[in-house]
Design a protein that fits this description.
Layout lengths: L5 H7 L21 E3 L4 E3 L2 E2 L4 E3 L2 E3 L2 E2 L3 E4 L2 E3 L2 E2 L2 E4 L4 E3 L2 E8 L2 E3 L2 E8 L4 E13 L2 E14 L4 E13 L2 E3 L2 E9 L4 E14 L2 E14 L4 E3 L2 E3 L2 E3 L4 E3 L2 E3 L18
Parallel strand pairs: 1-4, 2-5, 3-6, 4-7, 5-8, 6-9, 7-10, 8-11, 9-12, 10-12, 11-13, 12-14, 13-15, 14-15, 15-16, 16-17, 17-18, 17-19, 18-20, 19-20, 20-21, 21-22, 21-23, 21-24, 22-25, 23-26
Length: about 260
């Protein structure tokens, strides 16, 4: 019989090697490369790929591929990837960007992908976007390739043209939607012409209404004016006041070719 003491046993065991865990990699926070502080006025252009924050006043153009935040005043053109105009921010010029959030004021034309006008925001010129959400004010002309949402409490005085439009605020101007136009419960529209393939009214509309497929008036809906429809559906409680005619597809006019038969 063989006896092993604890020392011999420990000699036969493999020594465990303790390893220090690698520290977790912390991603560096994005830094703002250029800051124009509040109270500072700069005349000139900025062109580059760094982030720019404007808290003062900049007279000139901003061009780049990253983001710009403006909390002061800017006069000139802006071409960037992302733009935020803060509550105290004011831009007088042309804006071109992929995404834009406006909490201050923009007095100039804007071309962008996604645009949101916050409750405190105002845009006073032409808007061309892909998708647009309005919580504040918009004055001028609006063209949106996909959708426009006008929320409760917002004010729009503009001609609106889009694929789909949902109105739950106050609108004064012509409204065109190629597919669907909805006036929600708190929506109020005063218009010379409101036109879409399908129009659904649960709010109030005063003006000329054209629905090439269907006009649907909910129980809280109210429509007053000259109405042109192909089909109409009215729930109990819904009101329609005015003249009504049947919608007819416009006839395309083919210009006849004039042949000169005179001989020399």
């Amino acid at each position: 019989m063989a006896f092993f003491n604890s020392k011999d046993k420990n000699k036969n065991q493999k020594k465990e090697v303790q390893t220090t865990p690698e520290p977790k990699k912390v991603k560096p926070k994005p830094t703002i490369a250029t800051v124009i502080s509040k109270g500072i006025k700069v005349a000139g252009n900025f062109n580059g790929n760094d982030n720019i924050q404007v808290d003062g006043q900049l007279d000139g153009n901003i061009e780049g591929n990253n983001s710009v935040q403006i909390n002061g005043q800017h006069n000139g053109n802006i071409t960037v990837n992302s733009l935020t105009i803060g509550r105290a921010g004011s831009v007088n010029g042309t804006v071109r960007a992929k995404t834009v959030l406006i909490e201050g004021s923009l007095m100039g034309e804007i071309q962008c992908g996604d645009l949101e006008i916050a409750r405190s925001g105002t845009v006073s010129d032409k808007i061309h976007s892909v998708n647009l959400v309005i919580h504040g004010k918009a004055l001028g002309a609006i063209v949106s390739d996909q959708s426009v949402a006008i929320t409760k409490g917002s004010t729009v005085k503009a001609k609106i043209d889009s694929k789909k439009i949902n109105i739950n605020g106050t609108v004064d101007g012509e409204v065109y939607a190629s597919e669907l136009l909805e006036i929600a419960h708190d929506g109020q529209v005063t218009t010379e012409k409101l036109q879409s393939r399908k129009v659904v009214v649960n709010g109030k509309v005063n003006g000329k209404v054209i629905a090439s497929e269907l006009l649907e008036v909910g129980r809280n809906g109210f429509v007053q004016g000259e109405i042109t429809v192909k089909n109409i559906k009215t729930e109990e409680g819904g009101r329609v006041i005015g003249t009504m005619v049947i919608y007819q597809e416009p006839v395309k006019q083919i210009q006849s070719e004039v042949i000169d038969t005179e001989t020399a």
